[in-house]
Design a protein that fits this description.
The complex is a heterotetramer, with two copies of chain A (198 residues) and two copies of chain C (206 residues). The two termini of chain A are 36 Å apart. Chain A is globular, with a radius of gyration of 19 Å. Helix content of chain A is 47%, strand content 12%. In chain A, the strands form two sheets. Chain A has a two-stranded parallel sheet with strand order 1-4. A two-stranded parallel sheet of chain A has the order 2-3. Chain A is built from eleven helices and four strands, in the order H-H-H-H-H-E-E-H-H-H-H-E-E-H-H. With 198 residues, chain A is of the alpha/beta class. In chain C, helix 1 packs across helix 4 and helix 2 packs across helix 4. Chain C is globular. At the B-D interface, helix 1, helix 2, helix 7, helix 8 and helix 9 of B face helix 1, helix 2, helix 4, helix 5 and strand 2 of D.
Chain lengths: 198, 198, 206, 206
Amino acid sequence: MSGDHSHLSEMDVRVRALKSLLVEKGYVTEDAIDAIVDYYRDEVGPMNGARVVARAWADPAFEARLLENATAAIAELEIGGRAGEHMVALKNTPTVHHMVVCTLCSCYPWPVLGLPPTWYKTPAYRAKVVADPRGVLDDFGVTLPPDVRIDVFDSTAEVRYLVIPMRPEGTDGWDEARLANLVTRDAMIGTALATAPA
Amino acid sequence: MSGDHSHLSEMDVRVRALKSLLVEKGYVTEDAIDAIVDYYRDEVGPMNGARVVARAWADPAFEARLLENATAAIAELEIGGRAGEHMVALKNTPTVHHMVVCTLCSCYPWPVLGLPPTWYKTPAYRAKVVADPRGVLDDFGVTLPPDVRIDVFDSTAEVRYLVIPMRPEGTDGWDEARLANLVTRDAMIGTALATAPA
Amino acid sequence: MNGPQDVGGAHGFGPVVPEPNEPVFHDDWETLAFALSILMGPCGFWSIDRSRYFRETLPHPDYYTLTYYGIWLEALERLVADVGIHERTPPPKRVLRGAEVRPTLAAGFPYDRPGPAPRFGVGAAVRVRPMNPAHHNRAPRYLRGKTGWVTRVHGIHVFPDTSAQNAGEAPTALYTIAFDAKDLWGEDTTAGRVHADLFEPYLDAV
Amino acid sequence: MNGPQDVGGAHGFGPVVPEPNEPVFHDDWETLAFALSILMGPCGFWSIDRSRYFRETLPHPDYYTLTYYGIWLEALERLVADVGIHERTPPPKRVLRGAEVRPTLAAGFPYDRPGPAPRFGVGAAVRVRPMNPAHHNRAPRYLRGKTGWVTRVHGIHVFPDTSAQNAGEAPTALYTIAFDAKDLWGEDTTAGRVHADLFEPYLDAV
């Protein structure tokens, strides 16, 4: 996590050298690089997952399909793809809260959440959450009642997990677009709750 | 394990500052520093353990006492002290070979072996020997027959272990001083065998 | 591979510190390291499992001080060297052109395969085998030797252990296994259950 | 403390590389770091267990890149700061003068104490408790949850967990426990048995 500028420069030199080699060999093209960066910077992100969650809150039949086969249900919203080929949705309840991690690397459901935040990939999070999820919630300023059971999902294969947070009180009759504004990235990882309406 | 000179200089500066503080506070004296360095550099080392092993080879009654109560038997040779208060001797046989490690830090039987070599304290040795002792022996150029069982002792408390290697063939009638020349440090840790007579 | 990547349950890494309003990429080199890593996938020179193996074989101090895209870059350099791309130009399986990127990534790369029927059903008690392979393996150390129960059968998936060794996909059943956190950590836990996705060769019937 | 020190069974640290004709100390700073660490012991400001705790709480990258005397020096600096020696001069239990060093070190500092009788005898089957305490603890991770048998009863010793926390010596029985290496590592081992010295509070009857 060095912020040392000479270090960054070295990384810059190295990645440019690698890019030149791979472009020269014909394995990578400039327009493909631009396309992939645009895609993950602009099109794919937590707004996708928020739409899924909002629909699940608003439509019990969709929620049932999401819990039965998340990959297919998410595809109904034309969301899917790399690192989301085998999705499972985990529904939080008043008695069970879910948290997702990849202790062995950085597995994360890209199509619904975008690329993972740095903290998700740190040894700090990966080490702590499987043994002390309440300690992690404390790091995020979140406290759950002691009788809530916390279930942690370690993404050790190609299955990817989306947490469906509990729908906040005071949102009866809200449409999906309005509900989606309450659904943060962290709420869909399990390190936060859905935002309460202002 | 950096050999970087600026790093060593930093360590030198830091340890001198600490020494000045502790001397000034009256907790440490210059003559005590000199005495401890002399003691561990010149008086305490594998030659002590070699005397113990040679006597065990030469004197079956001593060997029996060594295996029964190693601390007391070693004290007969006026050897003992810090990091050797609770000694256990492990006798290698044609069917069982012993190896000693401290996976959690650097515990080592100082009175009989002196201060540990660097490799004994490295993560490389500590990580590998408890699962793959034959791989470690291979690193040391030692091969044991496949039917020899290798027992590893992890020094996790204040008990310290001394391996009694097998007495080499062709040493009948040797006196203790001559036998002691065959007993190396590594043979008493278990990463080597006693030296065969030339 | 019981390497620097296997950190579940470790102490000493400090609290989790989220970065407010974190950008998707922090630096141009991270962006490029990411894009190159993804685009080399379809070329078919290595599997995702092999790329993970090359990440987890970085030295511990590097693994714990680099950013994650730094880990990716180091591994990508070593993968490229491993294939011999500096010396020769092996034919790629596929090269993604700009217009193909979006539809290809949106279609994804599924890991389910035809293969032998799963041995265990939901509710079956299973024990993760005690093991310590030096090769790539996706049974985290904190679960090895522990007993849990099947909560989901995912069908048949590519087996990472062989895939990472260029030894074939060897498709095998994949399960979600639930563990009582107290069986893992004794009293030293605030978790209720811990679930992980584990492959049939990692599991024994109890 | 499941920290950087708990490396038993880990991969990725490379082969063991002995140094031929290694000197006792490589540099003057190592000599001095060693001497200061030993001489501060009799002062009584911290136990050997607490000093180990201060070593194993170093950050992972530091623990894996420093020499071992570097680890000692870092810990000693932090111990001195923890006691507040920069600000005040707490009275030492004992200060070793030059002439006292040799006889004191040759006498040693035994860790056996009077205390309650051991619960287990030689041959008893015991299981190391599943646990993951954040405090200092001397049951290595690779043995937690594993079953072995008592091969030696060492009597009653200072309990490191409490001693490291300045919570008293709490003397308790110490045993050597033998484990079949296959119970620890499955087929991935060349060891026959692995033995460790474990304290009674770490053990359950089987």
